[in-house]
Design goal:
Elements: H1 3-13, E1 18-20, H2 30-43, E2 46-50, E3 53-59, E4 66-68, H3 72-83, E5 88-89, H4 91-98, E6 109-111, E7 122-123, E8 126-127, E9 129-131
Parallel strand pairs: 6-9
Antiparallel strand pairs: 1-3, 2-3, 3-4, 5-6, 7-8
InterPro entries: DUF6088
Protein name: S-adenosylhomocysteine hydrolase
Length: 135
Amino acid sequence: MKLEDRINRSLTQRAATVILRSELAKLGSSAQVGRVLARLVDEGKLVRVSKGAFAKTRVNKFTGKPTPAGTLEDIAAELFQKLGIAISPSQLAEEYNSGRSTQIPMGSVVNTGRRRISRQITVGDRTIQYESHHR
């Protein structure tokens, strides 16, 4: 069985939306896995959201084109969980959720606590931003 077939089967059997390159590393060499992932991105079966992180796609019923199978917030939360990074809602989101503010937070901001993160997570033209308020 070809490596591309094994990776395709592995992707379809996973319930997760986010796939890390490291999860597929055992299927072949680094260069082979990289070529297959690049081909899957070109075919529209995956979309790259961060370095070494990809998200599954589904066909948009209005445009007929592949789009990520989740929102930026869902994909980011799943990616952070897989990476073992604890995040919490931003200060603005927390104020809105607790009723202290009526301003609805528009941007995608997460609180990383004391941890400094430089990983850029992008889906389409939207990017996760970080704030680090110590609690």
